[in-house]
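A note from the maintainers: we've had questions about how concatenated examples are separated. There is no special marker in the raw files; a new sequence line simply starts the next protein. For clarity in this README we add a label.
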Amino acid sequence: MEKLEINNEILTLKREMKIGRVHLLRRLIAQVKKLENAKGTDEQRTKKKQKAERWMQQVKVLQKANLDSLARKAMVSEECWLKVISEPKSTLEERALARLLNLKKVQDFVTSFRKEHPEWKSWVPQLVEMWDEKKARRLSYKAKGAGPTVQLCPTSFPNSDNDGTTDAAKESVKKRDPFFCKEGDDDDDDMEDDEEEGDGPVHPSWAAKQQQKVKLANLSAFQGKKITFD
């Protein structure tokens, strides 16, 4: 239950940070425009433009910030974010993220959670660390491109031609298509029946029919030309 509870709390904190980031970005961008449009001597304007560039870099950091990681960090960290902001040795990225973590709604949420769960130090950091390790392994796995490749539809089969069709499939097509029948295949049974009837007198119409069958048996497969019978 602890795992589900902390996960829900982190998701709620993430939504609060998303809203707070919008307001923070608006304030920073307004400050950048104010510095860029400031008047004064050339030296003063140069310094203000440089400061505006630093503010703008923090804006870009906040725009790309991963709120999932920041929410987990806010739940477990006891660092004073005001000190990070005012520390001269802090980088622009550290200052930008500290500004977001130091928002009043974020701090109020974390403080309220810790009051409701006085023993949070015994289980919250362990769960967050476990999630971070799983995420790191997953990202490294994707970066390496590991994993078996699956061939969903084979393009060729053993003992087949380059067109990717098996012999069995070709034979089935031949059986269904009359143009692939061998010469005289359809007439073998009729010829055998005629031979079993004997050499007695044959009706003229039957004789003509037998002659026509013999001619058809001697013809090759249809090649696209019109065939006429005598």
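[label: protein 2]
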Amino acid sequence: MIQINLLGLPKPKKGKRAAAASVSGDGPNPAIVIMLAFLLAAGGLFGWYMKIGAEKKRIEKDMLAAQKESQELALAKSKYDEREAQRKIFEQRVKVIEDLRAKASGPVELLAMIGDTINGTEGVWLSTLKEDGRNINIDGSALSVHQVASLMKNLQSTGYFRTVELKETQQDPQVKDMQQFNFTLVCEKIDKSQPQTAAGAAPAEKKL
């Protein structure tokens, strides 16, 4: 026999409804999840920033060290080039003096005096020396025009020359590592063979 419940479905018990409500409330809080994600991203970004900063400081330190080393090498090269130039100047002076003495066609004393005068003038060296009658033609090089003027003054003060004139001077275009001037001097010798003029003639003897 079929029974029909006209009262409807049975009402759920209060204990079951509370259990269902408690089950539906379980799970991660979205706000906490977002905050954790933000903190992780911020921590990663901060670590990356610190790493980049340390790398930047290391590169700057390496660059300063390389720059200092480059400056030291440039200074050492400059000193080496200066000493090498001085050595070449000295060797050139010695060679020219030896050649002049070996091929001397004029008075040895005069040639030695010129060589000593040039050696005594800083920054000047001799290339060729030619005797042309009463003139001595000197070709050489100097580190500045002021040193050429000093050489002319030193030659004039020797007492061997009546005049010392600068024929020409120009900067040597072939020398790239330093300033160098080529010059030609014409020195007129004093003729010491001429007899000195007497101060006065001796009085004639009276005839008795």
